[in-house]
Write a structure and sequence with these properties.
This protein is of the alpha/beta class and about 260 residues long. The protein is built from ten helices and eleven strands. A seven-stranded mixed β-sheet has the order 1-11-10-4-9-8-7, with helices on both faces. It has a four-stranded antiparallel β-sheet with strand order 3-2-5-6, covered by helices on one side. Helix 3 packs parallel to helix 6.
């Protein structure tokens, strides 16, 4: 049974951007990976999706972004609505054009292209003019100064933290309203992780971009998100405001990947 905490900071003025209702995801027609997961994200909100490795976080994100089919997975039951319209079965590229972008786990970049060429690949989704393109690149370099310093460097020769920044920067050039960010802290030094999360919060506050963060690091995510859902074995085991979840002394038991 899902435990739900009261959301004391909720406001009726908030506009629901994403509504995932009772989805069930199966791999290869036989392996149940996600069972009866529901969650919502309001416009301009940061929401954390927590859980140990194998809890189903990445599968939920792929079900939303349209990338589940690439892994031979099927959303067998439930609904996903974005801005009030159903999006299940919509190809990932069309969802990106509508404002949902998925930054996959593992910092996927075009290794043999330069940092700037990676960014340009995403910018052309909306075919901006030369002046607008320059402005958009300048914005990304302002958010991620490390990328400006490495803009002529092959992406595969940059550090893991720089590749994660590049993956996020490239996603932002699609002009998203919702970014699905899968394990942004994985394999990175704590100082770099903190820097990335601070940039995420600034982007949220200053641009109004909503984020759904799938993370194993509960303490880090709860420190930066507004609300959170905790997955266990493909189901939502707990949900509530980030502050209330962080204050629970039994979270380490409910969420098996947590370490105080």
């Amino acid at each position: 049974m899902t435990a739900t905490l009261p959301t004391t900071d909720a406001s009726p003025a908030l506009r629901k951007l994403l509504d995932v209702s009772n989805i069930e995801v199966v791999y290869g027609g036989a392996i149940l990976a996600v069972a009866d997961v529901s969650l919502t994200i309001n416009a301009g909100e940061i929401v954390a999706l927590l859980g140990a490795n194998g809890a189903g976080k990445s599968t939920v994100l792929k079900a939303i972004s349209g990338l589940a089919a690439a892994d031979r997975a099927t959303v067998r039951r439930g609904h996903v609505h974005f801005d009030g319209e159903t999006i299940l079965g919509t190809p990932a590229n069309r969802l990106t054009a509508r404002g949902i972008v998925h930054v996959l786990e593992g910092r996927h970049v075009f290794a043999h292209l330069t940092v700037e060429e990676n960014l340009l690949a995403a910018a052309f989704l909306h075919r901006p003019g030369h002046g607008e393109l320059k402005r958009q690149l300048d914005d990304i370099y302002a958010w991620f100064p490390r990328l400006k310093d490495k803009r002529r460097t092959q992406a595969g020769l940059t550090s893991g933290g720089e590749q994660q920044m590049l993956a996020i920067g490239r996603a932002l050039l699609t002009r998203p309203r919702l970014v699905l960010l899968d394990e942004p802290s994985m394999g990175l030094a704590p100082r770099i992780v903190q820097e990335i999360f601070e940039i995420i919060v600034r982007l949220n506050q200053e641009k109004g971009t909503a984020f759904l963060l799938a993370e194993q690091n509960a303490a880090l995510s709860l420190a930066h998100a507004k609300r959170a859902y905790v997955l266990e074995s493909g189901r939502v085991a707990l949900e509530g405001s980030a502050s209330e979840l962080a204050a629970r002394d039994d979270l380490h038991r409910i969420y098996l990947g947590y370490r105080a």
